[in-house]
Specification:
- The structure is a single chain.
- The protein is built from 1 helix and no strands.
- The chain has one domain.
- Helix content is about 95%, strand content about 0%.
- The protein is mostly helical.
- Keywords: Membrane, Transmembrane, Transmembrane helix.
């Protein structure tokens, strides 16, 4: 009985660790999305300035 209880506790800790890793991963994904969105915004502004200078 005690051995089973200890195994259960270990399993809970491993799940908690996995959850922590899963929580950390989306932050990296968010940082990547933010960098990507900033990159696309920069490209759009460059295109806009190029069009403005071309037609203006």
């Amino acid at each position: 009985m005690d051995e089973r209880k200890n195994k259960h506790i270990k399993k809970d800790y491993s799940d908690e660790f996995k959850g922590g890793r899963a929580l950390r991963e989306p932050k990296n994904a968010e940082a990547f999305i933010n960098k990507f969105s900033n990159f696309t915004v920069n490209i759009l502004t460059i295109i806009l300035i190029a069009l403005y200078s071309f037609f203006g």
